[in-house]
Amino acid sequence: MLNVEQSTLSDKLITHTDSPDQTRAWGARLGARLQIGDFVALCGPLGAGKTCFAQGLGQGLGITSPITSPTFIIIRQHPGPVPLCHADAYRIASTEELEDAGLIDYFRDWVVALEWAERVPEIWPEELYIIQLSFDNDGRRLELSAQGQGPTQVIRELSDAHSGT
Ligand SMILES: Nc1ncnc2c1ncn2[C@@H]1O[C@H](COP(=O)(O)OP(=O)(O)OP(=O)(O)O)[C@@H](O)[C@H]1O
Ligand SMILES: [Mg+2]
What we know:
By secondary structure, this protein is an alpha/beta fold. Helix 1 (20-31) packs across helix 2. It has one domain (13-163): Rossmann fold (3-Layer(aba) Sandwich). A seven-stranded mixed β-sheet has the order 1-7-6-2-5-4-3. It contains four helices and seven strands.
């Protein structure tokens, strides 16, 4: 049974995961609903589960190549039925550095998932998914929200599907 602890607002989904697999499963649920051009801001402290959630996104998108942390490479491409650009702003000193690395070139034709996205809010598109992960006892707290009509609708659908309404 899915562990949705609370879902007070239908356009924000707050849940708890007890294991990396559960975090991946939430990523996969969102990934299955993503489209080319979508942007996912993965936010949260060191080891919160951002890469784990991105692995789930990849599963949901139908990506078969292994998804590992892009911290040192900055941008990693995962071609697939819906291609994923998995990026990481941890080592980035400025938004310009991320732009120089070419991240914006992926915005139109890929799904972009950016770890440590909270470090570079200037680069966020107007419409996006915001995934906030944090430590919660032995597991993780996940907060899924969105900006923009399309992404907000997807979060509502996910929220409704898993709160039994
Ligand atoms: N409920 C959980 N969800 C996700 N990861 C978990 C959970 N419980 C334990 N873990 C462990 O926490 C670690 C999360 O690592 P992960 O690389 O996904 O985090 P991260 O946020 O990407 O870290 P970094 O800030 O270094 O990029 C893994 O070792 C994973 O096994
Ligand atoms: Mg990571």
